[in-house]
Design a protein that fits this description.
about 130 residues, alpha+beta, disordered N terminus, 6 strands, six-stranded mixed β-sheet, 4 helices
């Protein structure tokens, strides 16, 4: 017996685009795009369109902040509140995501920085 589509965790970017983003206290928008690190083929960020707010804007979230994905309901659950996301550093799609922006983002959320994680450092050097 093979693995059903519902059991498989492998999905294409194309399929996941449009999934609703669910914060701890409600939906906040949808996954609009992804930002990947070219050198290592690692998805660094989800670009979230917060169309439910006025004015709507785009923000980025790390996949590390995902609690779970409900494939059937097409929802990505993150362990952040709507206010945390609403007040996060601005993301400007026309500008590259650089280390200065990443530091502001991770400091704002109070999360460990992936580039300072010892276990990740070994993976990146390999």
């Amino acid at each position: 017996a093979g693995i059903s589509e519902e059991e498989s965790h492998l999905r294409s970017y194309k399929e996941v685009r449009g999934y609703h983003i669910h914060a701890e206290n409600g939906d906040i928008g949808h996954c609009d795009d992804f930002i990947a690190e070219d050198d290592f083929w690692i998805t660094r960020y989800l670009v979230v369109d917060t169309a439910n707010w006025h004015p709507a804007r785009r923000v980025v979230l790390s996949p590390e902040w995902i609690e779970k994905i409900n494939w059937g309901d097409k929802k990505i659950h993150v362990d952040l509140t709507k206010d945390q996301i609403k007040n996060c550093p601005d993301y400007k799609p026309e500008e590259p995501v650089n280390r200065v922006y990443e530091m502001r983002l991770y400091d704002y959320y109070g999360r460990p920085k992936y580039w300072e994680d010892v276990s990740n450092r070994e993976q990146i050097r390999a």
